[in-house]
Amino acid sequence: MSDQPNRNPTLDDVAVLAGVSTATVSRFLNNPKVVAAATAERIQAAVAQTGYIPNLLAGGLASSKSRMVAVLIPHLTDSIFNDTIQAMAEELANSGTTVMMGLTGITPERTDELIQAAIGRRVDAIISTAPLSSRTAELVKRFPGLFIQIWELPEDPPGIAVGFSHRDAGRDVARFLQSRGYRRPLLVTAQGTRAGMRRDGFVEEWQALGGGDVQETMVDIPSRFGHGRRIFAEMRRLDEQPDVVVCGSDYLAQGVIVEAQAAGLRVPDQLAVVGFGNSSIAGDMRPTITTVDIDGARIAREAIAAIRRHAEGQPPRERSVDVGFRLIARESA
Amino acid sequence: MSDQPNRNPTLDDVAVLAGVSTATVSRFLNNPKVVAAATAERIQAAVAQTGYIPNLLAGGLASSKSRMVAVLIPHLTDSIFNDTIQAMAEELANSGTTVMMGLTGITPERTDELIQAAIGRRVDAIISTAPLSSRTAELVKRFPGLFIQIWELPEDPPGIAVGFSHRDAGRDVARFLQSRGYRRPLLVTAQGTRAGMRRDGFVEEWQALGGGDVQETMVDIPSRFGHGRRIFAEMRRLDEQPDVVVCGSDYLAQGVIVEAQAAGLRVPDQLAVVGFGNSSIAGDMRPTITTVDIDGARIAREAIAAIRRHAEGQPPRERSVDVGFRLIARESA
DNA sequence: CTGAAAGCGCTTACAG
DNA sequence: CTGAAAGCGCTTACAG
């Protein structure tokens, strides 16, 4: 019921109503303690009365901190990152930070566009799960905020990285499967560096332990539940039938299990399956899925802690934070 | 390799280098055609040379259009909205619009906070899947942009709505199941208005067609794959065993199917299952899941078309866009 | 087709 | 603890 229904109240309106300067209102809003108690009360009342909502565009421009963070993920459906991103988004919202969501798909061009957009919005940080092309790396150099790569630990990150060793994860899975007596693994590898490193780690360790040849098949990105059908059909045409299928995601593993069961195979007795990521479905599937747990909430916390330190002008504690991983042996292998 | 490596180039830098005013550069950037060809070329070169990335905070403040849209969804994991949101995010990115992602969870307070944040960022539109509390509705009144509710068609939307009739969807499912000869449905209903409307529609139609009692059980929001286990266990304790379980999402349906199969039941012969949403898993599950298809891409397109019209100052074509739905009979029922 | 200039709504040294 | 004032980097009537 204001006099000017078509205009959002501004700092000025609040200041006039409270009988102080805009500077004081601004201070109160950003750091209530620096203002005298009596003044604070008057401002508070004025804010309530006007229904003032600060213009964060103006605030960001003036302070050159946007309180906005870009999160770049490949896609939404059946994504292995969803739990991490969910934890991230909740944490960020709690600290008053807005999340700009970028879906990179699988083309580097889209990634570059999104990074440009993020820079244009002067985000405080970019959190990325995307691979870094050399062109993208060039762009990132011009980014004044904090660039955080998650779910991986590159040699020489342009900003910081919070992740784990995919190679070691691959090794652990190989060791585990050999110890369980499996002999003929089929590796389902998605394109992309990370999947490749897990593959390399797996093959290395498998053969170091005296395992024989490792069969492999590629799967499109994003690897999802529905791919299980094709993978299984392909597998059936192999000369030598594997005794365990190692998948790059739990969704894919779930798909393979469903197909195997539909074909009358018992999992894990006749065919074992391993997933990756410990998504929520992994523990609820029948049989429950043996997988590698990545602590998404921890990745989120570490990333956000780094953003906070960066905002306070402190240098990062370390350029690479290794959050590790944990093989979870369940029923499927 | 600039002289001032620590400063992002501004419009001014570009203007000086191109030998024109900032106004002209701005015009070129926003609408290249209004600038003379020769001038355009010089500006282009200057932009390239400086590596200029426009500050969208400043642009948004000056023009009072942010080219940013807030998308509010309950959560990310196993979400029935993911395909819609994915289509939306891609379309928006194509038109140079940034997506602010808000995870509302299930508390109205969080929704209100996110709407405040969106208003604070002066987003051009808010696209929401969240239920509208009366307090939220109050907030929305002060939002100068376009408020779009999707996946539902409220009586009297504060902005516009793009969705379908949940009641009719419930009715259609009831009719379909009766025609297939099912007699003892178990309805798994999530909290929330939309699920409630489907429930009402189902029961109405079921009984209008001479069906008997309808058994029901509630499930927590978000309804997800893992809930299938509990639902199935509960079902087994019922005095009268249902012949079909009607679920509020395909993920939940998938969970019930997995549990039923683990218990040795054949789906659909011994227990049929119906999902909702036609998520990508529905067509790939074994058996494939009978479900209700919602055209998420169409919802996305309609929403974005409305935003575009709004940006051009045109009034919305209609306050409610009914995109309908389509029952897809597959193997599971 | 282009420029000079005001203005968008904040923040933040600086001074008191 | 508070205010006056400059400035953040754009856009956009207005005039020519």
TrEMBL record, chains A, B:
Coiled coil: none
Classification via SUPFAM superfamilies: lambda repressor-like DNA-binding domains, Periplasmic binding protein-like I
Keywords carried by this UniProt record: DNA-binding, Transcription, Transcription regulation
One family name in Pfam for this protein: Peripla_BP_3
Full protein name: Substrate-binding domain-containing protein
Domain HTH lacI-type per the UniProt entry, residue ranges: 9-63
Superkingdom, taxonomy of origin: Bacteria
